[in-house]
Each structure stands twice: as structure tokens, then as C-alpha cells.
Amino acid sequence: MITALCFIKVSPEAINSAGEQIARISGVRAAYSVTGQIDLVALIEVTSHDDVARVVTDGIGAVPGIVSTETHIAFRTYSREDLEAGFSIGAEN
């Protein structure tokens, strides 16, 4: 599984509709409205790098109001569940 974060700038009047449309794109797990330099963050989970490109260019990039995107591929995931599981290996319950 490949996870990517897509940082998205949107024209102000289109933020709500763009977020809703992006959340419905196949391969997008969630879309978040955020504060700061960008307007939305899309969490992408797909099986190949080609799928990331498809989601970003054919999906997100085609949504009306999108000004720009910046995509980052994750290569390691740290989660509370994973860390807790690592410490419980071999522990008796």
C-alpha cells in the first residue's frame, strides 16, 4: 500500500465543494480542510505509484477551483497502534 499526502491550494469560493468532490475520488481516504499556506490535505492510499499519479492529476487536478497541488509520498508510517503492538510482543496478558 502506498500512502501519499496531497497539499492543495483552492480558490476561496471553491474550498467546500472541492473538499467534498476530492473526498469522493477513488483512492482518496479522506480530505481535510486545514489552516495555513494550503487549504486542503488529501490522504491518498493506493497500490502503485501510477495510481498516485492518476488520483492527483486525473482526479484532484480536475476538480474545479484547484489552484495547485504538492504531493508527498510516505515511506514509513508511525502510529500509536503499531508502537504499542511492538512493546507488547511476548508480553503475557
Describe this structure in words.
The protein has a single domain (2-87), classed as Lrp/AsnC effector binding domain/regulation of amino acid metabolism (RAM) domain (Alpha-Beta Plaits), CATH 3.30.70.920. The model has no long low-confidence stretch (mean pLDDT 91). Strands 2-3-1-4 form a 4-stranded antiparallel beta sheet. It contains 3 helices and 4 strands, in the order βαββαβα. The chain has helices at residues 15-23, 49-59, 80-87, and strands at residues 2-10, 28-33, 40-46, 66-74. With 93 residues, it is α+β, with helices and mostly antiparallel strands. Helices cover 30% and strands 33% of the residues.
Q: Class by helix and strand content?
A: alpha+beta
Strand line-up in the sheet with most strands: 2-3-1-4
Helix-strand string: EHEEHEH
Described by its quaternary structure, the protein is: single chain
How far from one another are the termini?
31 Å
CATH homologous superfamily grouping? Lrp/AsnC effector binding domain/regulation of amino acid metabolism (RAM) domain
- The shape, in one word, is globular
Residues in helix, % = 25-40%
Rg calc? 16 Å
Number of strands: 4
- The CATH topology comes to Alpha-Beta Plaits
Question: What is the strand content?
Answer: 25-35%
**Mean of the pLDDT scores?**
91
Query: How many domains is the backbone divided into?
Result: 1
Number of DSSP helical runs? 3
CATH structural architecture: 2-Layer Sandwich
